UniProtKB/TrEMBL annotation, chain A:
Signal peptide bounds: none
Circularly permuted ATP-grasp type domain segment(s): 70-446
Protein's name according to its UniProt entry: Circularly permuted type 2 ATP-grasp protein
Natural source organism: Rhodobacter flavimaris
Pfam families on file: CP_ATPgrasp_2
Protein origin, superkingdom: Bacteria
TrEMBL record, chain B:
SMART domains found in the cross-reference section: TGc (SM00460)
Classification via InterPro entries: Bac_transglu_N, Papain-like_cys_pep_sf, Transglutaminase-like
Signal peptide segment: none
Name by which UniProt lists this protein: Transglutaminase family protein
Length: 470, 270
């Protein structure tokens, strides 16, 4: 039986961050709790925050379950995490600037050329072009898990368009509305500065040609997208337009937004669509979501695109292995956050180890996301394991494997009362003129007892994440 | 050799379109084998957009045309002095890592026949340069030049199976064959001054470049069984024909498009 680190109780004693929460739950009668849970659900439903799950059918507007028991960090714990996250965000951006420029890290032999230049996410179209301030990934979502009081591991980096930040904001909003008392009893760092910080970040990377207050818009694939709610929510909070490809056109070296008062020049696009769909002239010719000619405007310095096209080469699961090396190479520092040990099935000896130990490992597709195409060895049937064995043997390059981590647990409201459930954490680091991190993030919780898969697409829930002020 | 080019492309629409956008890779490359004496690109009734050099060293210029538009005419005209460098792309400034061309595209997808062709061709070759020459020769003999049997979307594998094709098919086949033996290769679009007999000849042309580490990029024209010399003008490159197209455009609207291309090349005696 694995020993999991419980973030609230250590050897029967309440840990410091949760000191004031013990009484809160003890005094809460079951009826009140059920009432509050129903109220929370009604609030989420009313504001319309739902999450459509790809390929699972059922109710496309189903809610992500919200757990009212907050996840808490002390100021001291957070500061260390913050330093580690910012360090990683800087290194990932330095890597992108380098591989689309001189490629020093490849020349130095620190990362195999093939892994970078033959990577599907490497965009030849943007080599030699330097985006404003040399920044490629303006919103870096770093998925972290914890295995002990001071042991945090990075599961993966998200350099393109990490989603979920609207849950961080809404979870807090709803908790404050339902339990104003505990926000008076606990001094909790606010997260509501995120929208302003995001706006500042985007404005700070406007093209050099922009000589006024930059006009910013969020480019969405439309309301069929599972994260559409978040796109419109962030546009509202920042006070910027939410646009689709058809709302934009290019002319005279700039991107223009159709408005009721005539065309308006756009300086910064926070895109929530994939590279492949941005511009049918440059990428997928059949894309109806993008803007024809957008990449020419971008590459001639007429508009900024966040994240920069090509940023995905930094968050590839095979490149991930080399992020600690990036921290050392570009920053001359030791990485503060650890990587999870990773076996590359592309390497014959490592693949052999993986195939011999499938029952103990987590196997992921190199380009997969959202918990799809994943094997959790200890939680899988013989049949599932054999299916993966065949897949890995067929196409080893497409898989990596990691040990099954003993994810920490936090108390969670369940049918029978309160029970420990496994959690992860995704903070959102903003990279522009400054590197900023609001104190908090999205805590995802695996609601099923014993489950280690926290993805919302696989039945995970979310929690409010607190950082206590000093 | 001094070559004078007049290249006119006309898109016609049977119903007026709302707007049109173009990305033009229509400028002769700057390298030791080419000196641009004069060159001008224009789009009738169009608005010039941004222009820049991409990572592969190609100059790209964007244009847009406001609707309603029933016809778009793109003209590239000028004079270029060329020198025979035996295909070597010497003095060309670019940033793209050659390895990135080892990625497959739909047009250069490798099937068993292409793999066999490539592996047999390089048997016993001493170095990469010889391998590249042998691959070009193998493609020349496997695909006979014959217009009209293939189309814009024919893949390398399909052309090889047919055993016939045009310069685009030869270039795709060479790229696919080179890649399968680990040599980065790319598609080049440009012009070829075929014959000076006063008769008009099809002058828009395409070939491939193969990267040989000790030398750099080298052009091979399997359609004419040679390396590009002073009769060739190089415009730009890409992973395949679509990527390297001198004109990429899109017109929004319901009209059907028809295309007319006229390229006139003349040689001026020095």
């Amino acid at each position: 039986m694995t020993n999991y680190f419980n973030e609230m109780y250590d050897a029967g004693k309440v840990r410091e961050p949760y000191a004031r929460l013990e009484g809160w739950t003890k005094d809460m009668p079951a009826e009140l709790r059920q009432m509050k849970q129903a109220e929370a659900e009604a609030l989420f439903r009313r504001i319309g925050i739902t999450f459509a799950v790809y390929g699972e059918g059922g109710d496309p507007d189903r809610l992500i379950p919200f757990d009212m028991f907050p996840r808490v960090f002390t100021q001291l714990e957070w500061r260390r995490l913050e330093r580690g996250i910012k360090q990683r965000a800087r290194a990932l951006n330095a890597f992108l600037l380098d591989v689309y420029g001189r490629g020093e890290i490849v020349r130095a032999g620190k990362i195999p050329a093939k892994l970078v230049y033959q990577n599907e996410a490497f965009e030849r179209a943007v080599t030699g072009f330097t985006p404003p301030r040399g920044i490629y990934s303006h919103i870096v979502g770093i998925d972290l898990v914890r295995t002990g009081p001071d042991d945090f591991y990075v599961l993966e980096d998200n350099c393109r368009t990490p989603s979920g930040v609207s849950y961080m904001l809404e979870n807090r909003e709803i908790m404050m509305r339902m339990f104003p008392q505990i926000f008076r009893e606990n001094r909790i760092e606010p997260v509501d500065g995120y929208a302003d910080a995001l706006r500042r970040t985007l404005a700070s990377v406007a093209p050099a040609k922009c000589d006024r207050e930059p006009t910013i818009a969020i480019l969405t694939p439309g309301h069929f997208n599972s994260a559409y709610y978040e796109h419109s929510f962030l546009a509202d909070l920042m006070g910027v337009e939410l646009v689709e490809g058809a709302d934009l056109f290019v002319e005279g070296g700039f991107v223009w937004m159709r408005t009721t008062e005539g065309p308006k020049k756009l300086d910064v696009i926070y895109r929530r669509i994939d590279d492949a769909f941005l511009d049918p002239l440059c990428f997928r010719p059949d894309s109806m979501l993008g803007v024809p000619g957008l990449m020419d405007v971008y590459r001639s310095g007429g508009v900024s695109i966040c994240s920069a096209p090509g940023a995905g080469v930094a968050d590839d699961k095979a490149v991930y292995t080399f992020v600690p090396e990036m921290v050392r190479f570009y920053l001359g520092e030791e990485p503060i956050l650890q990587n999870v040990p990773t076996w590359q099935c592309a390497k014959a000896d490592e693949c052999k180890y993986v195939l011999e130990n499938l029952g103990d490992l987590v196997v992921k597709e190199v380009h997969g996301s959202g918990g799809y195409g994943m094997l959790v060895g200890p939680k899988s049937t013989k049949e599932q394991i054999e299916t993966f064995r065949a897949k890995i043997t067929e196409d080893p390059d497409n898989y990596i494997a990691q040990p099954t981590l003993a994810l920490s647990t936090t108390p969670t409201f369940v049918e029978e009362g309160i029970a420990p459930r496994h959690v992860d954490l995704r903070p959102y680091c903003l990279v522009g003129e400054k590197i900023e991190l609001v104190p908090g993030g999205l805590t995802r919780v695996a609601l099923t007892e014993g489950s280690l898969v926290v993805n919302s697409s696989q039945g995970g829930g979310v929690k409010d994440t607190w950082v206590l002020a000093e | 050799m001094i070559l004078t080019v007049n290249h006119v492309t006309t898109y016609q629409y049977d119903a007026p379109m709302r707007s049109a956008v173009q990305s033009l890779r229509l400028f002769p490359s700057r390298f030791d084998g080419q000196r641009i004496i004069r060159w001008d690109v224009s789009v009738e009734g169009g608005i010039r957009g941004g222009s820049f050099k991409d990572g592969a060293g190609d100059k790209i210029e964007a244009w847009s045309v406001r609707g309603p538009v029933a016809e778009v005419t793109i003209t590239a005209t000028g004079q270029v002095e060329t020198t025979d460098l035996a295909g070597v792309l010497r003095g060309h400034r670019e940033h793209v890592p050659p390895l990135s061309y080892l990625c497959e595209t739909p047009a250069t997808w490798v099937d068993d026949a292409l793999e066999t062709l490539a592996n047999e061709a390089i048997l016993g070759a001493e170095d990469d340069l010889e391998r590249a020459h042998r691959l070009a020769r193998a493609v020349s003999s496997a695909i006979a030049y014959k217009p009209g049997v293939t189309h814009a979307h024919t893949t390398a594998a399909e052309a090889l199976a047919l055993g016939e094709g045009v310069c685009q098919d030869h270039a795709h086949a060479l790229i696919a064959a080179a890649r399968t033996v680990g040599l980065p290769a790319r598609y080049v679009s440009g012009y070829l001054f075929a014959r000076d007999d006063g008769e008009p000849h099809e002058a828009a042309h395409a070939w491939a470049e193969v990267h040989v580490p000790t030398i750099g990029w080298i052009g091979f024209d399997p359609a004419n069984e040679c390396c590009p010399d002073e009769r060739y003008i190089r415009l730009g490159s890409g992973a395949d024909a679509r990527d390297a197209a001198p004109i990429k455009g899109i017109a929004l609207g319901l009209g059907e498009e028809s295309l007319d291309v006229a390229v006139a090349l003349e040689a001026t005696q020095q």
